[in-house]
User: Fold Purine nucleoside phosphorylase from Posidoniimonas polymericola.
Amino acid sequence: MTLPASAYQDAAAAIRARCDLTPRWAIVLGSGLGPLADHVEVSAEFAYEDLPHFPRSTAVGHAGRLLLGRLEGQAVVVMQGRFHLYEGWSPQQTAMPIRVMHALGARSLVVTNAAGGLNPQMQVGDPMVITDQINLMFQNPLIGPNDDALGPRFPDMSQPYDPAYGETAKAAARRGDFACHAGVYAGMLGPTYETRAEYRMLRRLGASAAGMSTVPEVIAARHAGMRVLGISTVTNVCNPDALGETSGQEVVDAASNASSKLLAMVTAVIRSAG
Ligand SMILES: O=P(O)(O)O[C@@H]1C[C@H](O)[C@@H](CO)O1
Ligand SMILES: Nc1nc2[nH]cnc2c(=O)[nH]1
Assistant:
């Protein structure tokens, strides 16, 4: 579905009409990670269905609420649930909330997700700081007329994830004494999990984690010049030579169980940026 050019400004105006907080940070909470929002001192809360042009969350483990408030004293806007291409939303719709949060004032983005771990050292519950991404969705939210007011027609993607944010997140994991990996996130269309042959291919392509989100959001964020921290939680181990079955519920449960690690890393980065 094509969105009107004014869609993200309309949604931002509806939010501003009820809340005058200017968020510096935008945070997208992935599958099972919604409870991180319990740590936000909330000023205003919006159901996605009440915001103009906003899609509705249909994915398991995604509450479908936008919160404005403070985390670690910093003004934040938090998506408790996101939109995925496999739900039937267009790339523009999956990325639209990023533009809304940018229009509200956010200049840094934290994206979190649940992902399959491809690196043999990974265990369920381990976080991975995303260093780069591979777009295997073969779709792009910037297709169509470019909004020059937002960003360039041909955005640079040489460093989509901010290395300084990543280092701070890894340092928080060291302080917390829990394992933390760094690697490349492969964005898949879903909703099927991968076959053994596909996991094998992803390893050969240089991916360390496979998921079904994040890539369109990060493209939209980089287009708008936002600095990005990305963290995956490994929810299933993808060993092509000994692959067990994976279910959506198992993924959500594994992500929820690891949410305290995510919280430690995300808050450390927000704190350090002052
Ligand atoms: O929103 P995220 O990327 O955390 O959701 C992942 C991808 C699918 O929605 C689901 C598959 O298990 O988890
Ligand atoms: N594509 C994909 N998405 C996931 N989300 C959680 N685990 C996985 C996985 O193994 N593959």
Summary: The mean pLDDT is 94.
